[in-house]
Amino acid sequence: MFSFTIIKFVIRKTLEETYVYTFLFLANLFPDMSVCSVIRALLVRTIAIVGKNTRIRKNLYVNSFRKLSIGSNCFINRGVQFDCSGRVSVGDNCSIGFNVLVTTSTHLEKDRVGEDERTVIGEAVIIGNGVWIGANSTILPGTEIGDNCIIAAGAVVKGKLDPSGVYAGVPARRIRDTSGIAEKRI
């Protein structure tokens, strides 16, 4: 009975991975045009939670669509990667720049490199409403980004970020408020 349960789990996991990679392959076949980003979002909506008027550019990577939710009126640029070992939630009216990595997987400190037995833990990432994440940024496990934040390009973000702030650097720190910068460059 025990071995049958393990075999059933392995088959289910293999089928799920095959489905995810096949789906990503097909979704990324469309050219990188505006109309295709809408079609790509509609395709993703069939297996993940995606709000209305969300656009997704080419070369999206998601390892588990079941744990991903994206709000309405969002823009996901080229090459964005969602590692969904834990839950990833993106609010409404968000823009995510190209090559952004949102990762939820981590492991216990006792696990050492080279050991076969590692415990992978998924820590949720929550991105609030109206957030703008610049290109090549990395969002680490357990991060909560408050509403109306701006993450500068190349930032590495970990922890809880207060709303309405501009965060930059490695590690990302609050450098100013978002009030009054609508017309300025960051």
Number of H/I helices: 2
Number of strands: 20
Major sheet: arrangement of strands? 2-5-8-13-16-19-20
By helix and strand content, what is the structural category? alpha/beta
Give the C-alpha Rg.
18 Å
Q: Considering DSSP H and I runs of 4 or more, what fraction of the residues is helical?
A: 10-25%
Separation of the first and last Cα atoms: 60 Å
Keywords:
2 helices; 186 residues; 6-stranded parallel beta sheet; alpha/beta; 7-stranded mixed beta sheet; single chain
Architecture overview:
The protein is α/β, with parallel strands linked by helices and 186 residues long. The chain has helices at 2-27, 34-45; strands at residues 49-50, 55-56, 61-62, 68-70, 75-76, 81-83, 88-90, 95-96, 101-103, 105-107, 120-122, 125-127, 132-133, 138-139, 144-145, 150-151, 156-157, 160-161, 165-168, 173-177. A 7-stranded mixed sheet has the order 2-5-8-13-16-19-20. It has a 6-stranded parallel sheet with strand order 1-4-7-12-15-18, covered by helices on one side. Strands 3-6-9-14-17 form a 5-stranded parallel sheet, with no helix packed on it. A hairpin with a 4-residue loop joins β19 (165-168) and β20. The longest helix is centred in the N-terminal third of the chain and has 26 residues, at 2-27. The model has no long low-confidence stretch (mean pLDDT 82).
